[in-house]
Each structure stands twice: as C-alpha cells, then as structure tokens.
Amino acid sequence: MPIKVPSDVLVSLATVPLLLIIVGSRVFADIMQDWGQGSEEIFRGDRLPLLRIPLTQPLDKQEH
After folding, report:
1. Cα(37)–Cα(47) distance, rounded to whole angstroms?
2. Which of 1, 11, 41, 43 is the most exposed place for a label (fewest CB within 10 A)?
3. For the chain, what are the domain ranges?
4. pTM for this one?
5. Which long-range contacts (CB under 8 A, 24 or more apart) does 48-57 make?
6. 41 contacts: CB under 8 Å, gap ≥ 6
7. 18-45 in b/e burial notation, b at 16+ Cβ within 10 A?
C-alpha cells in the first residue's frame, strides 16, 4: 500500500532544490564571465612584450 503525500508538501520540498539550482547557475555564470574577462586581459596586445623582428636579412646570409 503506497503512502499518500499531499501535493503541497511535495511542491514545498521541491522548491528549495529548484531555488538552489537557479541561484547556483547565476553564480556560476557570473564566475565564468569574470574568468572570460580575465583571460581577455591576459591576451591584450598592450600587455605583451614587443618583439624586435628584423625586416631584412643581413648581407652575408641573403640568398643569391
């Protein structure tokens, strides 16, 4: 014989986990957005060192 539980009790028990999922997903999305912005800062061009690349080869190493 199955136990009958009122539907309002089931709804109230399901509310807390549902709210935790909603709040947790919002926090997770905010963290991911912050990490994305942080990684953009790492790869910005003004933070990278300048590379000195010669435009021409030295005379003794040029191909003939």
Report:
1. 14
2. 1
3. 8-38
4. 0.52
5. none
6. 47
7. eeeeeeeeeeeeeeeeeeeeeeeeeeee
